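Query structure, 336 tokens:
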């Protein structure tokens, strides 16, 4: 079993917007995204062989071509490894030695450490084409096999690689989409880094799971986000950030509640959202929902999006289990 949203929607709604570059305005329809993923997947199969399980790393700021690379890796049977560009050279060297990629696509802004991997310019990724018009279906690996390798923050030691299968991503995206009222008319703005589960999956893959669309920015800039929220040409319906970003938006001199009031949902996660901040946004008429997820499992919990009274009463809570989650509270001995 394999759910490939790009292939599905590339056939059923080919001319609808799938992904946009918030910096340049460039757009990819579902048909565009499907073709780009196939061409790059065919190139990967040509370079690495089919279903090799070979890691392919990327060291770059947010860009739609990172998403193309992830889908291409899934179709080629490779493993997508997005690297945290905020890390120092020695820290990246540790992660690269652990991941052992065959290919590393690097932004011109970064100087990746040398190693056995072959380093290619990230800017050239869109020009790569394989010998076949599309990636062969036999290149796909099992739905439960690792397809993405995310590295944890390493707050209690060295970063650890979290192996995520397409099945794992599917259920995490299902949870977020069903719990946050995401459908084919949803339009996300992703400011979160795509080397993190919140950016790569909740803010990007979840709207695509539903057949919606996402605008990808190169990174968070409060002034730009406020401007994009107010710009009808973007048509943003959903925004996901960490609480610190919400605080920066509110404190910015250009902030006005009106554009954010039009959102279907402003979701927060990654850290507890202070109750005072929850109340500030909800009292301003902004539909805010706090949640909890983790790299290993994706989205797990969220506050109900249609009950602001409950949100205020339980401000600071991560909410209720999403659709495919079973949860229980236990003591130290594992007793419920």
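Result returned for the query:
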């Amino acid at each position: 079993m394999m759910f490939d949203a790009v292939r599905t929607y590339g056939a059923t709604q080919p001319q609808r917007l799938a992904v946009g570059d918030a910096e340049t305005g460039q757009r990819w329809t579902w048909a565009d995204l499907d073709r780009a993923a196939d061409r790059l997947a065919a190139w990967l199969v040509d370079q690495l062989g089919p279903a090799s399980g070979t890691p392919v790393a990327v060291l770059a700021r947010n860009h739609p071509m990172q998403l193309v690379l992830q889908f291409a890796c899934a179709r080629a049977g490779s493993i997508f490894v997005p690297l945290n560009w905020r890390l120092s050279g020695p820290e990246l060297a540790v992660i690269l030695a652990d991941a052992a990629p065959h290919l590393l696509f690097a932004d011109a802004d970064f100087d990746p450490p040398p190693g056995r991997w072959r380093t290619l310019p990230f800017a050239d990724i869109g020009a790569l084409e394989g010998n076949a018009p599309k990636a062969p279906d036999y290149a796909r690996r099992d739905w439960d096999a690792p397809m993405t390798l995310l590295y944890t923050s390493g707050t209690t030691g060295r970063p650890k690689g979290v192996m995520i299968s397409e099945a794992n991503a599917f259920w995490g995206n299902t949870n977020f989409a069903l719990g946050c009222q995401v459908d084919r008319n949803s339009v996300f703005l992703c400011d979160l880094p795509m080397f993190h589960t919140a950016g790569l999956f909740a803010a990007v893959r979840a709207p695509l799971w539903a057949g919606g669309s996402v605008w990808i920015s190169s990174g968070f800039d409060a002034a730009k986000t406020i401007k994009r929220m107010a710009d009808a040409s973007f048509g943003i319906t959903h925004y996901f950030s960490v609480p610190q970003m919400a605080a920066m938006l509110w404190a910015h001199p250009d902030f006005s509640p009106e554009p954010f009031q039009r959102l279907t949902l402003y979701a927060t996660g990654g850290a507890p959202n202070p109750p005072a901040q929850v109340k500030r946004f909800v009292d301003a008429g902004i539909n805010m929902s706090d949640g909890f997820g983790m790299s290993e499992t994706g989205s797990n919990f969220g506050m109900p999006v249609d009950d602001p009274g409950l949100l205020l009463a339980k401000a600071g809570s991560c909410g209720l289990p999403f659709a495919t989650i079973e949860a229980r509270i236990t003591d130290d001995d594992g007793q419920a």
